[in-house]
Design brief:
The protein has about 70 residues and is mainly α. It has one domain: 2-Layer Sandwich (Head-to-tail joining protein W, gpW), CATH 3.30.1580. The chain is about 50% helix and about 10% strand. The protein is built from two helices and two strands. The protein has a two-stranded antiparallel sheet. A hairpin with a 2-residue loop joins strand 1 and strand 2. Helix 1 runs antiparallel to helix 2. The termini are far apart. The model has no long low-confidence stretch (mean pLDDT about 80).
Length: about 70
Amino acid sequence: MSSPSKEVMLENVENAINARITGGAVQSYSIGGRNLQYVPLSDLYKLRDQLKREIAGSGGTTTYASFGNPS
C-alpha cells in the first residue's frame, strides 16, 4: 500500500484539528485498562504548516516559455 499524498495528509491533519477543537481538548483517555493519547494540538498545527509549505513549494504547475513563430 502506498503512502497518502501530502494533500491527503493535510486534509487528515486539518480534520484531526477540527475534531479536537469541536470535541474538546482531551489529551488522553483510558478504556478497559488501555491508555490512548492524542497528538498535542501544537504538534498538529506544526505538521499542518509544514505540509502547507511543502505543497506550496512543489508548485504543482508547469511553466512553458513562448518564443513566438520564427520568421
